[in-house]
Amino acid sequence: MEKTKFVVDFLKRNIISILIVLIIINIIFLYFLNKRENVFFQSKPKYHFYVIAQNSVDPFWREVRQGIDKASKDFNAVVEFNAPRFNNPQEELKFLDIAVTSRVDGIITHVSNTLDFTSIINKAYNRGIPIVTIENDDKKSNRKAFVGTNSFQLGKEAAKLMIEATNAKANIAIIVSSDVELDEVNQNLKINGFLSGIKSYPKMKVQKIYTYKMGILSAEEIAQSIINDGENIDAIYTTNSVDTLGTARQIVNFNKVGDIVIVGYGDTESILRYIKKGIIYGTVMSDPYKMGYESLKALIDIKENNNVSTFIDTGVKVITNKTLYEMEKKSK
What we know:
about 20% strand; single chain; six-stranded mixed sheet; Rossmann fold; alpha/beta; six-stranded parallel sheet; 11 helices; 12 strands
C-alpha cells in the first residue's frame, strides 16, 4: 500500500517532467520516421532513360556504361541498356525505334553512318523525347546534344606524340580504314588534325596514306607491305584501335621494334601492354567514362532546365609509358 502511494505521489510531483520526456521521445520518433519516408521517396527514380551502344564487347563501350551508371546514381535515374553484340547498325536502329515507341524520358544513342538514323531521331523529337548522340553524331537530325571528342583535336594530339617520339624527324605512313561504320568524316578529321600538327616541322613528312575497306585488306597486311617494300618508313600513325593493334603485331613479327615508331588510338589491354613494352610509343583516344557520365547529365539538364550545349567536348586522353607509370604510382 505504501509503495503504491509512493508511486502515485511521485507521478503527481513529476507529471510535467514525464510529459515533457514523452513529448521529446515522440518528436524524435516522428523525425526519424519522416526521414525514412523521405529516403524512400527520393530512391524512386525520377526518369527512365534508354541507351543504345555500338556493341557490347568493346572495352570502350563498357567504360561508357560505367560513366552512365555513375551518373544515373548521382541524378536518380533508371537506365536501360541495349547494344548488338558486335557492330550491327540494323540492330542499333531497331533498338532506337523500340525506345521511341516506348516513350521513355530520354535516349542516349550511338549513330551509325550506314543507315538513316535521322528520321527516327526526328520522330523522337516530335514526340517530345530528347536524344543525345554519343561518340558519333547526326548533325542533320533534331538531336538535342552531341557528347564526344573533336576528331581534329585527336589528330593534333597524335601529331604531338609523333613529334616527341621521333625528335621531329620522320618518314610517316598513315593507315586509315574507309569503312563507313567507323565514320569516314571523323577519320578524315583525325588525319587533317595530324597533318596540321606536323606542318611546322619540315623534317616530318607523310610519305603515304594507306586507305582500305574492312574485309578487303587489313592494317596488318599494309604494315607488312610497308616493311617488305623497304619504303624508308620509320613511323606509322593509325586512327583506330584495331589498326593500332594489327600494326603493332606486325612490327613484333618482323623484328622492327625500335626501327618503326607507332602512334595510334585506343587503350585495350593489349595496346597498353604494347605501350609498356615500348612497341607502341603512345595512343590518343576519347574519354569513354566521361562521355557516358556527361551524356546522362546532358539529358538531366534538358529535362530539368530545357537547356544544354549542342556539343559537349569530353576532351582527349593521351596514353604513353610515362602516363601509365604515373597512373600506377597514384593508385598505390
